Amino acid sequence: MKTILIVDGYNVIHGSDDLKRLSEIQLEEARVQLINDLNGYSGFKGWETILVFDAYQQQSLEKREEMVGRIKVVFTEKNKTADSYIEKLVYSLPKAYSVRVVTSDFTLQQMVMASGAERVPVRELIQDMEATLKNFRDDKKKSGPKQGVKLSDFLDAETLDQFNKMRVKE
User: Most buried among 31, 59, 112, 154, by the most CB within 10 A?
Assistant: First the structure.
């Protein structure tokens, strides 16, 4: 079954210590970091991801959608909340999908569960993203080239003896 992860972007930014600190300095950088993190996470999980931001601090009055890597990034239209966008989106998706919604808004969480979707607390997403990244790095280390491998590990005794004789002659 196809899984769709819907994320309330500012909830995650404010729920992550690192992203929150970054947003206090440069909000756009915090959004970019979240997009990058979710791209890797979504790719590893094999999920379709929709990241929703309120039109907070946006000049445009219109909704804006763009694909960034594997994820769809949505900026709602001016004066429309991410929660109302997510609510409509959840109800419009076919029931054949497994829908997971990341939000810290209690009312939206209740609506998500009533619609048959799964609510994911912000803290749980952040922890799972960190664990997934750690597992990915650990797997990469294990599959990388081994340090200290010697040619002699791959040679039979006779060939190794011939190499040793040639080396001594020099």
Answer: 112
